[in-house]
């Protein structure tokens, strides 16, 4: 991503990270936001199909720390998968190390979105009241699961829409080939990789988190603001959650 585009994306993502941003304001620019990020991904894919040196397959490592490390890792995976990246989760102390694989432009998109969405999730959790009698950590885990689920669905729809707008079968073939190449790289590095078991959550926050996921900004070009940063999720009672 060019420096100009990188600066623009960081500024527009920062608007949604502002705690003063209302749900209505976030909802108003969400559709256009996802479209911008998706179009960039398709454009880079088509350019790389003509000149592979412009966008090589690569990898990077992201450390996810407590509290709510498993939930943060789930959010990262929810962002990575629709953007044609794969991630392998490895235990690391009280948190996890996520080994991400993907084309350079897609890894860049994942990093920008994940950083911003962590901030937005932190604001959403801070503004959501835990129901009386419910364990705060359980509620917040389920809230984050709902948030991640909807964000992933929105990103997947935006990616499909950007590809369909091109109107040619070759686009689908290019994108499918990129996904296959990333999958092959993962297999080369982790030939004995196993799927993680399905996680079961007891909290009642899934619906509230899903609503926040619908409001989350995924890169609106009309928004402006300061630089992004990775936040600390949870309150003083969250230290035991992973």
Question: Number of helical runs?
Answer: 7
Biggest sheet statistics: 3 strands, antiparallel
From the alpha-carbon coordinates, what is the Rg to the nearest angstrom? 18 Å
Number of E-state strands: 3
Proportion of residues in extended strands:
5-15%
Class inferred from helices and paired strands: mainly alpha
**Ends distance:** 33 Å
Mean pLDDT: 80
**Outline:** globular
Write up what this structure looks like.
This protein is 58% helix and 10% strand. The chain has 242 residues and is mainly α. It has a three-stranded antiparallel beta sheet. A hairpin with a 2-residue loop joins strand 2 (86-92) and strand 3. The longest helix is centred in the middle third of the chain and has 31 residues, at 136-166. Residues 221-229 and 235-242 have low confidence and may be disordered.
Concise summary:
The protein is mainly alpha-helical and 242 residues long.
Topology (elements, then pairings):
Layout: H1 3-17, H2 23-50, E1 57-64, H3 69-80, E2 86-92, E3 95-103, H4 104-126, H5 136-166, H6 169-189, H7 206-215
Antiparallel strand pairs: 1-3, 2-3
Highlighted features:
single chain; mainly alpha; 7 helices; 58% helix; globular
